[in-house]
Structure formats: C-alpha cells, structure tokens
Design brief:
Aconitase, domain 3, 4-stranded parallel beta sheet, 14 helices
Amino acid sequence: MTLELDPGDLALLNGEAGPAAAAAMKILSSFAKAVRADRLLDISAAHIDGCLYLGQASLDFAERLAAGGGRVAVPTTLNVGSLDLIHPELMQMTEEAQKPARRLMQVHKELGCLPTFTCAPYQTQFRPRFGDQIAWGESNAIVFANSVIGARTNRYGDFIDMCCALTGRAPAWGLHLDENRRGRILFRLTGFPTSPEPTDALFVAVGLVVGKLSGDRIPVIEGLPPPNSEDQLKALGAAAATVGSVGLFHAVGITPEAGSVDDAFQGHAPDETILVSQADLTDALRHLSTVPDGTPITAVSLGTPHFSRAEWKQLLPILRRIAPARGIPIYVNTGRATLEQLVGEGDFEGTEAFTLLPVADTCTYTTAILKRLDGAVMTNSGKWAHYAPGNLGVSVAFGGMEDCILSAAEGRVVRRLA
C-alpha cells in the first residue's frame, strides 16, 4: 500500500516549518507506512504520554525537538510527569534525581504543550467531542476517549503522539476508521440482579475480565447496569486497558456507538460470545489483592486514573463521617485543574484532622511518593492494584472507596468486594 502525502505534508517534510516539524513528519510517515496507512488525516488535539521520565532517551528526544524550533500544531495536553510540582514536599527523591524529570516536564511546555499533567484529560476543558479525530497517548485516556466519548484515536505510544502533535496529522488506520471500530467479541453478563445500585468494583471487575479475554478484538458488553457516573466507565476502561490491549469497548445501551448489539457489531455476528457470571467477577477482583482481610496497611492510594471532581465529592463526606485518626496516609491522585477548583470552592476545609494528601501532576505508582513500602497499601483502583506490586514492590489490597477509608481508620484491610 502506498502512502499518499498531501501538499501540506510534503511542505513539512521538506522543512518549510523548520527542522523539528520535518523530523516529526519523517517519523510519522515511516510509522504510517509500517501500519499500512494510505494517507494521513487531520487531528484536532493530542495528549502526550512522554513527559514521564523513564530515561535519558525521552529527554534527548524532547530537547532535540525544542532545539529544532518545535511547536505543537494542535491543542496538546500532557499526561502525568514524574514529579508533583505543586506538592514538592511529597517527593521521596533527591534534588539531583529530580532534575531530569523536572526538565522533561519543562521542555514539553516549551514545545507548546498545555501543562495539564493528568492521565484524565477528558476531565479538563480540553475534552474532545464525539467523532473528533485525535492522537492520544496513555491507555486509560485512549479507551475513555474512544468508548465513552466516541472520539477517535489509536493507542499512540511515546514519541509518535508528539510527532502527531507537531504536524497536526495522524495515519488513517485502526480506530480512526469506521470499519475498524465494530465489535468482534461479545461479553454477556448473566445472573446479575437488576435492582441494587451497581458498585464501582463491579465495573473494575468487568474491565478485568474483558481486558484479559479480548486480545486484539474490540469487546462488546451486554447486560452492564447503567453506571451511576462516567467515573465507573472510566474504571472499567482503565482496568481493561491495564490487563489487556483494549483501546475501545462498546457497552450496549450505554456507550455512544452501541445503541444496540447490532449497532455495536455493525450488523455482523460476533466472532465469539463469552458468558460472564457474578462468580467470574468476584474471582477477578480476588486476584487483584495480594494480602487477605485483616492485614495491617501503611497507606491508602486512590485516584488512578486521576480523581474527578465527582469522586472528590463522594470521598470527602465519607472521610468526615468515618473520621479516620491521623496516621495512615490517604494519598489521592488528581489533576491540578480539579484540585484548584476544589481548593477554590473550600472543599478541603476541616480535613486537617485526617492524613489526606492530594497528589497532583503524577501518580503514586509511577514515582517515589509513598513514605513506606514495607506494608500493604489499600486502593480502589484496578490499575493501581495491578501495577504497584511490580513498580513499587508493595503488597496490595483492593476494595471500594468506603472500604479504603474504613481500612485507614482501623489500620488494617477491611473490604466488602461486590
């Protein structure tokens, strides 16, 4: 298949917008050929995953683009970095170790990126709309944009997302195209009660099952209870993208491209149908935890993906009602824009009695923030529970938000998986 570049693409490739844009177009063109795209398409926005410092190569790449006069061509938000720039006192790193991470975050701003530093750009004013073509990095953001909003992006990795941002273009392939967005595998939930309010843990569990069994096929979920908020769909997508490669899911009657099963499959029959029972979900949640009930904990970590304003509004009354004594730190990862809004509205007044530690710009499973790694950590995040044991070496207990606060109050794991 031949890649056809339009006159604007060729102008960039020939250096008419400077060496950085030319390099970005050269890389993007090579990538497009590798995925057998026949053309590039315009994007309206980008989200960059590469400002999290993982080694010198990431900094060298960004510095070279900046030195070549690089400037993003579309509104471009930034994923989490390796530092909490708002709460530097939380960082358990030497100043010398922080330098390259800080520089990487800074150089992305010099490239014209917006300093959102959140894994949930859909919670900001830069949220895309249905049908928008975008180039996003960060697995949970990708699956949320595609599934819940109905915007269109592939799973763009580091450096390719920045090349898209610098050129305003992306390869016309994969989930950008109608025909590649149809469902392939059906997950039918069976034997679930219809009256009780669905719990957050239910959506995490569905995400775990779907992510594990879908492979590279787009899943369609039938029988999912209507969510209380889009945060539950956020949790489902994050779990599915964490344990698998899901970039798009359809929930029948819930997500915008799945008004019916037939809509989700675009008139085709599913390749496979998998029945999912309550026992399957309970088993999936059980495997998230590495310690049993009653295990002493040293911390609670919430907000992976970043806590929304609605989740804060749910958490703060629980904190005030349970009133855990100061001692077990409760870390809550959130976007700086969300945090600023809550502070401005006075939502944190009276929380000084608790060891509540908002974390912005980063996440506790990606960098050195937790003071103690010698005990178990309680979380309500399927993503955090999956990654933290390998990233941090901690033991993990998964439970609902209220269970996490009860555990902080008692200093041990208290949970009611449902």
